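User: Modeling request: complex.
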Amino acid sequence: MIVSGLSLKTFAIIVGSAAALRAVQFCLDLRRLLRSIDYLPGYRTVFSSTTVFGNLLPRIPLLALGRAHSWRLKHAPFAERGLDIISAVSFWPKPVGNIYIADVQAIKDIIWSRGLFPKPLSQYAVLKVFGSNIVASEGDEWKRHHKVVARAFSERNNRLVWDATTQIMLELFDTVWIGKDEVVVDHAVDLTLQIGLFVIGAAGFGRHISWKDDAVIPPGHQLTFKDALLTTSHDLFIKLLVPRWAMGFTKRFRRARLESDELQRYLTEMIQERKGFQLKEDDEDLLSSLLAANNDENLWKDEVKLNDSELIGNIFILIIDETVSHSLAFALALLALYPDKQEELYQQIKRVLPDGRIPTYDDIPSLSYSSAVFNEALRMFPPVTNVPKSSAENTTFTITDVNGTQRTLRFTTTVRYSSTQSRSAIAA
Ligand SMILES: *[C@@H]1O[C@H](CO)[C@@H](O)[C@H](O)[C@H]1NC(C)=O
Ligand SMILES: *[C@@H]1O[C@H](CO)[C@@H](O)[C@H](O)[C@H]1NC(C)=O
Ligand SMILES: *[C@@H]1O[C@H](CO)[C@@H](O)[C@H](O)[C@H]1NC(C)=O
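Assistant: Request completed. Predicted assembly structure:
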């Protein structure tokens, strides 16, 4: 074959040199990358686990770490190396170095130095589909969200959530489970997800949701608030993965679109309804507290307050948080697997509440066995294993290894961090 006058031989030489150049460039990039992470040992794979594609792959040695590798392996990769910091270098689409940290002090340093370790916002972008919010922002934008959210979500809210939860559980016992000696739940999450969302409905929006399927669809809506709330979080991954223009393609996608549109409509309505009222921060639900904090002129000097889309963004972060429901399901499963622990738990509850009264928020310190059960479930099955951060400047970490030797590691700015919390949980 002749390419516009070039002989095949010349063509082969050009292609060959280009490939050789690429290979040399790749080796140089790689060497620079390894130097930038101080030659810290760890995983070496082709695909990065921080890309969507790399995350979809199963574990294939040398190719991909596989889905939820931190969740599966927990502290084991650190224990194997005797050091609470390891690297993960991947080569495609370009050489990238990630650092996984399980050292408690180093994690604290990273969390407290917001400016030095900003969030890699591209990894959080999916959480912005319903509006900007405190989780998916950084810098001045984060500060605006933080002002309002920190004011609204206080210790008082824990009481609110406690009271809502007791009400919801009592209603479950008194209606759906009444008169039954035994209740069989095949999949615990089906139950705990409802509990979680009913609590959000009540404590978050002052909306009582009934266990019984008797809600009427209000005018202007196609779904009840309960259905919009329950199904949106279930089908959220569709909304996150499928672009807006493709949402009409299948029945499933159209359903997911309807659900999230309906939920958005409900939330917008609730914000509008509250606009006419004089709200106080100690009002009975989180949305009212959030709006009251946002409306406080003293909070905003030269800045603009949060607009409706940003308010809804922060509320969505609260709603889509299914971590509580899943953690609760794991705790129930563990109690079923260890009946002796379940009995100890039951006996302590009976000792603390001898007359069978309903526990209040102030009983929590006395219910130490319950707290221990939840902590252990969280340690065994952590709902969140990594908090991704990036480094804005060159950084030094001093980490003590398993033999008590201090190791100092110097990283330059091409590095990304992922603080793994499994170790701190194990130490707790
Ligand atoms: C700790 O000491 C043991 C025994 O000397 C050694 O085999 C191991 O490699 C050391 N671990 C680290 C992380 O240096
Ligand atoms: C609300 O603020 C965001 C920035 O966080 C902006 O993109 C959006 O256009 C604003 N929405 C309205 C309705 O002003
Ligand atoms: C970070 O370290 C590298 C390598 O030592 C150096 O070339 C670079 O100037 C440093 N960057 C900063 C911002 O100090």
